[in-house]
UniProtKB/TrEMBL annotation:
<feature type="domain" description="LD-carboxypeptidase C-terminal">
    <location>
        <begin position="214"/>
        <end position="327"/>
    </location>
</feature>
<dbReference type="GO" id="GO:0008236">
    <property type="term" value="F:serine-type peptidase activity"/>
</dbReference>
<dbReference type="InterPro" id="IPR027478">
    <property type="entry name" value="LdcA_N"/>
</dbReference>
<dbReference type="Pfam" id="PF02016">
    <property type="entry name" value="Peptidase_S66"/>
</dbReference>
<feature type="active site" description="Nucleophile">
    <location>
        <position position="144"/>
    </location>
</feature>
<keyword id="KW-0378">Hydrolase</keyword>
<dbReference type="InterPro" id="IPR003507">
    <property type="entry name" value="S66_fam"/>
</dbReference>
<feature type="domain" description="LD-carboxypeptidase N-terminal">
    <location>
        <begin position="48"/>
        <end position="163"/>
    </location>
</feature>
<dbReference type="Pfam" id="PF17676">
    <property type="entry name" value="Peptidase_S66C"/>
</dbReference>
<feature type="active site" description="Charge relay system">
    <location>
        <position position="244"/>
    </location>
</feature>
<feature type="active site" description="Charge relay system">
    <location>
        <position position="316"/>
    </location>
</feature>
<dbReference type="InterPro" id="IPR040449">
    <property type="entry name" value="Peptidase_S66_N"/>
</dbReference>
<keyword id="KW-0720">Serine protease</keyword>
<keyword id="KW-0121">Carboxypeptidase</keyword>
<dbReference type="GO" id="GO:0006508">
    <property type="term" value="P:proteolysis"/>
</dbReference>
<comment type="similarity">
    <text>Belongs to the peptidase S66 family.</text>
</comment>
<dbReference type="InterPro" id="IPR027461">
    <property type="entry name" value="Carboxypeptidase_A_C_sf"/>
</dbReference>
Amino acid sequence: MNRKHFLSALISTGAAFPGVRAAAAILPFDDMPAHPIIPPYLKEGDEIGITCPAGFINRDEIDAAVRIMESWGFVIRIGSTVGLKDGSFGGTDAQRAADFQDMLNNRDIKAIMCARGGYGSARMIDRLNFDAFTKHPKWIIGFSDITALHSHINSRFNISSIHSKMCNSFPDDFRTSDAVMQDTISSIYKSLTGTAMQYTAVADPNNRQGSATAPLVGGNLSVLQSMSGTPSEINTKGKILFLEEVGEYLYSLDRMLGTLERSGKLRHLKGLIIGGFNRIKPDDPGEEFGRTLYDMIFERVGKYNYPVCFNFPVGHQRNNYALKCNAIHTLQVSNTGTTLVEKTI
């Protein structure tokens, strides 16, 4: 058997790389169906699983989230990784993958809430088998490090997911929390139960006006750029891309944006949404980078003509609203502000 045919046979049987699952359901980007796959929306009595694909969290730290989601009428199943610790992770890679796999396979669980972010999803994603998930899709919920999972399932399987706050961001007492906290947490419930989401952002003098209707994809910038060249690489062609980041130097942001540009991820967009870029680290004295975030964005996208908006309410911040990734939205950027409206299929 020649080398080419031998490798093809190994890959088709999943034998090429021990421990890495074959992914028969994966389609090339250009062969994706026109409309995304929307998992079934939840109704009262449905189960939500809580698991830790990234950083660790103690059982008592998810109590507020459990109480609130139960008040919504859902049954909560707590995964085996809650309370586990392996360094900074919620258990070993094998333990986190096994817990997540159990929830992917369990037909009774209709949504999977990631307990927190941190780091670790990309370490275990290649251990997962998505066959059951692609046959019976369910909502995957989270942000930050969970961007790796959003990127993987949005791009590889054309299935939608929810970018939102996680268990570690739920308030201890929902009734006494402020309006922004209540609205952002309620946006998770609305997204899970089928409300077509609609958001606004104030006008920014750096916005580039225009409108676009397309699937919405994106998440954390550093995670997205780290997916480049991997099976979890984001597909941005013909999409509205949203980006957020926290705790980076300006030069690091420029490097990451450069990776997106050089890999073609900014070339064929329908629109670009810039969310919170918070707690940017100060330059070292004498080593000032000399560019603002606005400068860096338009250095990368100035030659294109799609709409661009800044300061959208998503990211590592209190006004971090739930967004349905890979669902079709209309973005409208005008001199009076920005609107993002989910379109029903």
